[in-house]
Design brief:
By secondary structure, the protein is an alpha/beta fold. It has a single domain, classed as 3-Layer(aba) Sandwich (Rossmann fold). 50% of the residues lie in helices and 10% in strands. It contains twelve helices and five strands. The protein has a five-stranded parallel beta sheet, sandwiched between helices. Helix 3 packs across helix 4. It starts with a helix and ends in a 6-residue tail after the last helix.
Length: 216
C-alpha cells in the first residue's frame, strides 16, 4: 500500500509537470502574466496557442478538459491573456442555476469556449454546440475520457466533433498512451480500477515509463 501511494503521487506530479511547471510549482496566478513565456515553458500551452484561430472562430465552439482545478485556472489566465473570455465549469461552481446558466450560455453560442474539469463536466451535461474537444491532460481512464468527449457527442449533435489530445512527447504521458493503445489488458484494468492498475507494474516497467528521452 505504501508503494502504491508513492507511485500514485509520482504519476500525479509527473503529469502536472507535463502540463506546465507552473502547476507543479503551484506558482501564484496574481501579478504579471506573459503568455509567450508560459508557452516556452509548456509545450501543451504552445500547442493550445496553435489552436487560437479555431478558438476565435465565430463558427466553432470548444470544450477544454483538464483533470486539475488548478490547471483550469491557469488555462483561464492563459486564454484571457490572449484576448479570449472562456467560460469556467468545475466542482467549485454550485450545483443549480449557475451551472445551468453556463450550459445555456455555451449552447446559445454566446460563450464560444469553456474550460472544464473532467470530474465536474464528465457526465450529465449536453453541450452539443461544441465542434471541438481539447483534452489538455488525459485521464488515463478510457471510461472517463469517453464521458468527457460524449458531452459533445450527444443526441442532437449535427456537427462533426474533432478531438484534440495534448500529450507531451517522450514522457510518462506518451508511454501511458502507448500502453493503452497497444496493451488492451492494461487498458481494461485501467478502465476498471483507474490508477491502481499502474501501481501493479514492476519496478522495471515503472522506470521505463518515467525515463526521459526517446531511447529506452
Amino acid at each position: 500500500m505504501h508503494r502504491k501511494g508513492l507511485l500514485l503521487n509520482l504519476f500525479n506530479k509527473l503529469q502536472q509537470i507535463c502540463n506546465t511547471p507552473a502547476q507543479y510549482l503551484s506558482e501564484p496566478l496574481d501579478g504579471d502574466y506573459d503568455p509567450q513565456y508560459a508557452a516556452v515553458r509548456s509545450g501543451k500551452l504552445a500547442a493550445l496557442d496553435d489552436l487560437l484561430p479555431l478558438l476565435r472562430s465565430p463558427d466553432e465552439s470548444t470544450l477544454i478538459f483538464t483533470r486539475y482545478r488548478a490547471m483550469a485556472h491557469y488555462l483561464l489566465r492563459h486564454l484571457r491573456s490572449q484576448g479570449l473570455e472562456p467560460l469556467y465549469f468545475s466542482g467549485d461552481i454550485p450545483i443549480g442555476r449557475e451551472r445551468q446558466r453556463l450550459v445555456d450560455t455555451f449552447q446559445s453560442g454566446t460563450g464560444k469556449t469553456m474550460v472544464m474539469t473532467v470530474k465536474a463536466g464528465g457526465s450529465g451535461l449536453t453541450l452539443t454546440r461544441a465542434s471541438h474537444v481539447v483534452l489538455f491532460d488525459r485521464p488515463w481512464n478510457p471510461a472517463k475520457e469517453s464521458q468527457a468527449i460524449d458531452r459533445a457527442h450527444r443526441l442532437g449533435q449535427q456537427r462533426t466533433v474533432t478531438v484534440h489530445q495534448l500529450i507531451t512527447e517522450n514522457t510518462l504521458e506518451d508511454r501511458i498512451d502507448e500502453l493503452l493503445r497497444h496493451k488492451r489488458a492494461l487498458a481494461d484494468a485501467v478502465l476498471a480500477d483507474g490508477y491502481s492498475a499502474l501501481t501493479e507494474l514492476t519496478d522495471e516497467q515503472i522506470c521505463d515509463l518515467i525515463a526521459l528521452g526517446a531511447q529506452r
